[in-house]
Amino acid sequence: MGRRTAEQVWRGNLRGPLSTKANSANNQFSGITVLGSGSATVTVSTTAVKSNSIILMGAQANAAVNSLTGRSIEVKSIVDSSYFVLGTVDGVSMARNTNIGWLLFRQD
User: Fold this and answer.
1) Domain count of the fold of the chain
2) Does residue 9 lie within any of the structural domains?
3) Domain ranges, residue 66
């Protein structure tokens, strides 16, 4: 048997770069939401969230340097099978609109 590539070995699991389809449904598991200017929190509604979910997120702003003005974003609360709330760590509102990309992992 000859040498095999990673695509051949992992053919069912490796089909190009990692990506996800973000839909706008009640069971959404990934997406982009906007933390609006003057707001410190934003609510994301999805029935896919559980109390033990892992939520990965990253901020996307319209300025390249110090776009969040030094503020970090965290998960403030989770309501099982309903929604979760993202917000600034210090509770101070954002000076500009900030897109937050998020991805949800369930542990059940």
Assistant:
1) 1
2) no
3) 27-105
Q: Among 7-21, 24-38, 83-97, whose mean pLDDT is lowest?
A: 7-21
Residue with tokens 């949800």: 104
Q: Domain for residue 20, yes or no?
A: no
CA distance 75 to 91: 12
Average pLDDT over residues 6-28: 62
68 touches 101 (CB < 8 A): no
Query: What single letter denotes the amino acid at residue 31?
Result: G
Measured CA to CA in angstroms, residue 19 lies from 11, 30, 36, 68 at distances of: 16, 11, 26, 25
In a domain, 1, yes or no: no
Confidence of residue 65 (pLDDT cuts 50, 70, 90): very low
Is residue 18, in this structure, part of any structural domain at all?
A: no
